[in-house]
Write a structure and sequence with these properties.
With 123 residues, the chain is α+β, with helices and mostly antiparallel strands. The protein is built from four helices and five strands, in the order βαβααβαββ. The protein has two domains: 56 residues, no CATH class; 64 residues, no CATH class. The strands form two sheets. Strands 3-5-4 form a three-stranded antiparallel β-sheet, with no helix packed on it. A two-stranded parallel ribbon has the order 1-2. It is globular, with a radius of gyration of 17 Å. The termini are far apart.
């Protein structure tokens, strides 16, 4: 019997159309009032742990990742590096210096074409 994976969406949105769409697709929604400070993140992780998730994979942008770093909620970090540079064409112009300070020595062999995958342990 195959392992059924559950999909969860975490949202602050009150968009009823979007929430109804997820419900129709049988995607569980975790509704939060806000996600600004360390206590908000603790509430989120406690909810996930209560559901049964002790380890989670987060795919995020720089803003969310920056907050996870700031509050020290990251143990292992995996970075995909594309050979395409966005320069000023990216939609987020947030500072990524915290990532540049990390050492990505461990290259993971995966079939990503010309893209690369690196892992580092965050202290």
């Amino acid at each position: 019997m195959p392992n059924k994976r559950k999909i969860f969406i975490i949202t602050i949105s009150n968009n009823k159309k979007k929430l109804h769409y997820f419900k129709k697709k049988k995607i569980k929604v975790i509704k939060l009032n806000k996600l600004d400070d360390k206590n908000d993140f603790k509430v989120l992780f406690k909810k996930l742990f209560k559901i049964g998730f002790g380890r989670i994979l987060i795919e995020s942008g720089l803003i969310f990742l920056n907050k996870l770093f700031k509050f020290k909620f990251i143990n292992n970090l995996y970075i995909f590096k594309s050979n395409i540079n966005l320069y000023n064409n990216g939609s987020n112009k947030i500072n990524s210096n915290f990532i540049k300070k990390l050492e990505f020595k461990k290259k993971i062999k995966v079939n990503l074409g010309t893209d690369l995958l690196f892992e580092t342990r965050v202290k």
